[in-house]
Specification:
Shape: globular
Radius of gyration: 24 Å
Strand order of the largest sheet: 1-2
Largest sheet: 2 strands, antiparallel
Number of strands: 2
Helix content: 40-55%
Structural class: mainly alpha
Number of helices: 14
């Protein structure tokens, strides 16, 4: 009788242990599948990184500015309903896309390069790599090719099936007229700190801006180097719309190199946008700007931390969303 009781007890314990292990395994597997990590395509598309880099490198060799444009697409994508490739979608009969929203209209660029990357990736491994991941990889490669830090980009995102003009137009993407508190709050709302915000703003060490977004600064603001202002005024007339689409380098010193000169410029009152110079204007972020001005390695390190963190904003994973065949339209 005692042996039967012991056998029954042992059997029950084994069942409980097996069940517990099964539950733990399910939970563990589920949590892993819902997270982004650099090796996501290790088996399903091992050539994805080399393929993306090749297209980006060719595009930058033809036009340096495209690197900044690809970096900006990743930023504008992530800030609107998460990093889901929604910025790439064209308008349809059921929704108005984000391309013509205020922050993107006539200024977001690089869509053709993304389409080229997608076509090349589809040749290597069809139906595997998302457009959202292509944006993240292309942003990393752009930074590295232009002299910035190389970092392992986390992947595993899926693509949204829709986009939101209203969300993109709601102010979640800080405008170039932003106050410091607005910048800090907008980034905080996306889970990013003031330090992250300043480091990511350093992305303006590459790229250009249109006259219409910096006109008021170069004519009306006082915290600006006079010679710098006059040089910008020569190609940006005071009265709109004359010269609205004329462009100027965001970094007057080394516009085609991803370095810390953006912060050097701010210390010297040569920030092109109001939202640039406000980072060094007697406020709470002055010390960070000074630090990056003096320590380019620290800027690179903090930029990497911040952009990886930004890439984690509300991704679609698992069975959510889809893997688009063409980045400009849902399947």
């Amino acid at each position: 009788m005692m042996k039967q009781i012991m056998a029954s007890s042992s059997s029950s314990s084994n069942i409980v242990l097996t069940t517990t292990l099964a539950i733990v395994l399910v939970i563990f597997t589920g949590s892993c599948s819902a997270q982004l990590y650099p090796g996501f395509y290790h088996k399903s598309c091992p050539k994805v990184f080399a393929t993306v880099k090749s297209v980006v490198k060719t595009a930058i060799s033809k036009e340096n500015r495209i690197g900044a444009s690809l970096l900006r697409l990743h930023f504008h994508d992530c800030f609107v309903n998460g990093c889901d490739g929604s910025i790439l979608l064209d308008d349809t009969s059921s929704f108005r896309g984000e391309k013509t929203a205020g922050p993107n209209n006539n200024s977001a660029r690089g869509f053709g390069v993304v389409d080229k990357i997608k076509a090349e990736v589809e040749q290597v491994c069809p139906g595997v790599v998302s457009c959202a991941d292509i944006l993240a990889i292309a942003a990393r490669d752009s930074v590295a090719i232009l002299g910035g830090p190389y970092y392992e980009v986390k992947v595993g995102r899926r693509d949204s099936k829709t986009a939101s003009f209203s969300a993109a137009n709601s102010g979640v993407i800080p405008p170039p007229t932003s106050t410091l508190s607005n910048l800090i709050n907008r980034f905080k709302n996306r889970g990013l700190s003031a330090l992250d915000m300043v480091a990511l703003s350093g992305g303006h060490t590459i790229g250009k801006a249109r006259c219409r977004v910096f006109r008021k600064r170069i004519y009306n603001e006082t915290n600006i180097d006079s010679s710098f202002a006059k040089a910008r005024q020569s190609k940006c007339p005071r009265n709109a719309p004359s010269g609205d689409n004329n462009v100027a380098d965001l970094d007057v010193a080394t516009p085609n190199s991803f370095d810390n000169h953006y912060f050097v410029n701010l210390v010297n009152k040569k920030g092109l946008l109001h939202s640039d110079q406000i980072l060094f204007n007697g406020g709470s972020t002055d010390s960070l700007v000074k630090h990056y001005n003096e320590n380019p390695k620290k800027f690179h390190s903090d930029f990497v931390t911040a952009i990886i963190k930004m890439g984690d904003i509300d991704p679609l994973t698992g069975s959510k969303g889809e893997i688009r065949k063409h980045c400009a339209r849902a399947n």
